Amino acid sequence: MAHEVLTMGRISVDVYPDDIGVPLEDVAGFTKYLGGSPSNVAVAAARHGRRSGVITRTGQDPFGEYLHRELRKFGVDDRFVTSVPHLQTPVTFCAIMPPDAFPLYFYGRFPTAPDLQIDAGSLDLDAVRDAGIFWSTVTGLCQEPSRSAHLAAHRVRPRQELPAGRFTVLDLDYRPMFWGGEAEAAAEVARILPYVNVAIGNETECAVAVGAGTPDEQADRLLAAGVSIAVVKLGADGVLAKTAAERVVSAPVRVKTVNGLGAGDAFGGAFCHGLLSGWPLAAVLDYANAAGAIVASRLSCADAMPTPDEVAALLAGQGRTVPEPMESAP
């Protein structure tokens, strides 16, 4: 198996201010980082020792070259990252206003972006089929040809045919600026959910996917749609995960927040690591929760992804169980 974790979708250059708590118009200096949720998840998984790769596209420009270099630096396979000559690599600016204000400003994504030009004909479907975990996001469904490419990728991984220990994960990552409305997004999610055995989202994202309700109701609707593991992020109240036989809540891991934007991606990469390690669901959830908290306490996203030792130290420091070292992936 070439990839333990293979992600698909958005990539960008994140440009973050060096000045924390300062409005963008007053910031004196910035630093660039690799960004884009699925790409960050691949980086996070690699930080945990997993063989990871990403399927995406950049512009044919210096920023595109920079992203290739960063992926390789982090140990992420970039063979499926191709360029689109007539489009520019997107850049995302963020203001850092802790504890809870991190507005994003997207440049080079409208009316389209290179990673939304992933087409089904260019996919290595064998690589998708053989991955231990295939991870995609709802954002990749927002326009063609990316929408059809994602559907083609999911079709080669029917969830009922996945061997034990392999997973297809949909990050419910709903960003309204990329859609005509929630109804459009919900319709596309409904087309993909039949191929997915793990769904992850916060309460707002779950509401787009399966309707408003309590976190338990949303998780139950995701399970009714056929997923095996439904994860609902509860913000300050932690994370809920449910299966047909189990309900687990991981309490929040308290840290001083610097930048909350990368926490979900750190959670995702660590969650993949835990699943592939065969840990109990409660251990997977606590480990992923701690990884997300560490990144929330740091400025950047990809560069801030924690190592297993850092996650274990935080868990131990909070009196939580530290999972056993990782097992070999199937």
Mean pLDDT: 95
Question: What is the CA-CA span between the terminal residues?
Answer: 8 Å
Major pleated sheet: 10 strands, mixed
Unreliable stretches: none
Counted by DSSP, the helix tally is: 10
Percentage of helical residues?
25-40%
Structural class computed from helices and strand pairing: alpha/beta
Shape: globular
In angstroms, what is the radius of gyration? 18 Å
Which H/E pattern describes the elements?
Answer: EEEHEHEEEEHEHEHEHHEEEHHH
Strand runs, count: 14
The portion of residues forming beta strands comes to: 15-25%
Question: Could you provide a short overview of the structure?
Answer:
This protein is α/β, with parallel strands linked by helices and 330 residues long.
Write the layout of secondary structure elements.
Layout: E1 5-8, E2 12-17, E3 30-35, H1 37-47, E4 52-59, H2 62-73, E5 76-77, E6 81-84, E7 91-94, E8 104-107, H3 125-130, E9 133-137, H4 146-155, E10 167-171, H5 182-192, E11 198-202, H6 203-210, H7 215-224, E12 229-233, E13 239-242, E14 247-250, H8 263-277, H9 281-296, H10 308-317
Parallel strand pairs: 1-4, 1-9, 2-7, 4-5, 4-6, 9-10, 10-11, 11-12
Antiparallel strand pairs: 2-3, 7-8, 12-13, 13-14
Describe this structure as you would to a colleague:
The protein is an alpha/beta fold and 330 residues long. Helix content is 33%, strand content 20%. The protein is built from ten helices and 14 strands. The protein has helices at residues 37-47, 62-73, 125-130, 146-155, 182-192, 203-210, 215-224, 263-277, 281-296, 308-317, and strands at 5-8, 12-17, 30-35, 52-59, 76-77, 81-84, 91-94, 104-107, 133-137, 167-171, 198-202, 229-233, 239-242, 247-250. Strands 1, 4, 5, 6, 9, 10, 11, 12, 13 and 14 form a ten-stranded mixed β-sheet that branches. A hairpin with a 4-residue loop joins strand 13 and strand 14. Helix 8 (263-277) packs antiparallel against helix 9 (281-296). The longest helix is centred in the C-terminal third of the chain and has 16 residues, at 281-296. The protein is globular and about 50 Å long. The mean pLDDT is 95.
